[in-house]
Amino acid sequence: MKIATWNVNGVRAREAQLQEFIAREQPDVLCLQEIKASIEQIPMWLCEIEGYSCYWHGGKGYSGVALHVRQAAVPERPAFFHPEFDHEHRIVAARLPDFTVASIYVPNGGKDYEAKIRFIEALDAFAAGYEADRQPLVLCGDMNVALTDLDVHPRERKANVIGQRPDERALMQRLIGRGLVDVHRKVEPDNPDLFTWWAPWRNLKARNIGWRLDLILASTTVADRVESCVVQREFGTSDHGPVIAVFGSA
């Protein structure tokens, strides 16, 4: 199974790129963030992507997430739902035969840091419920927290800046401790150049001076089957790169 997550930073601006990405990669699960569009603003082909069950959850010009499941992998339309802590169109989940998957856009925290903390705490409680019930879970998306200093280019490391603060990092580690695995770090545990977001100035993306904010967190039973995980830094004009993980059969 191939799972991809991508913060597109405006789906209307990235429409042609998204179409190219889906046609080329054909992910079994595609999670999108920051679609910045209501369902009325999304081009019809996106709402009805051939071969996919689609769910779009967004508002005009801000935030928004989407979740697509390929019918070749899951023939029947899955049950899509929003955990009760969803606000500002930041999470949509789907119950698949082998696991529940969620597309997530954690608040940046720059305007309301406490709202960011509350969201991560609620996400942690959500994951704890799945751990308690021994139900596999896959959380994908822009978590807006660099887990460790290794996940930030040395030139971008700043003590106590939002996205690198000890309290938010501790919360994310508590979340991962709910039986989850950081899939990309499982594949590349020591890679110091593994980033998924680059500030849109000073040619930082081309120079790979960035942060690793986009994660795939999976229950051990899923993560143990990972065969590869990559970030496509050079694809697209979003300030985030798509992250793609491939898992073997159970």
> What is the percent of helical residues?
10-25%
The N- and C-terminal alpha carbons lie at a distance of 10 Å
What count of helical segments does DSSP give?
Answer: 7
Q: Describe the sheet with the most strands.
A: 6 strands, mixed
User: What is the second-level CATH architecture?
Assistant: 4-Layer Sandwich
Kindly provide the name of the CATH class: Alpha Beta
Query: How many individual domains?
Result: 1
Spatial sequence of strands, sheet with the most strands: 3-4-2-1-12-11
CATH topology: Deoxyribonuclease I, Chain A
The geometry reads as: globular
SSE succession: EHEHEEEEEHEHEHHEHEE
Indicate the radius of gyration in whole angstroms: 17 Å
Question: What oligomeric state is this?
Answer: single chain
Which structural class is indicated by helix and strand composition? alpha+beta
On the 0 to 100 scale, the average pLDDT is 96
Are there runs of 5+ residues with pLDDT below 50, and where?
none
Q: Please provide the count of β strands.
A: 12
Task: Give the amount of beta strand, in percent.
Answer: 25-35%
CATH superfamily: Endonuclease/exonuclease/phosphatase
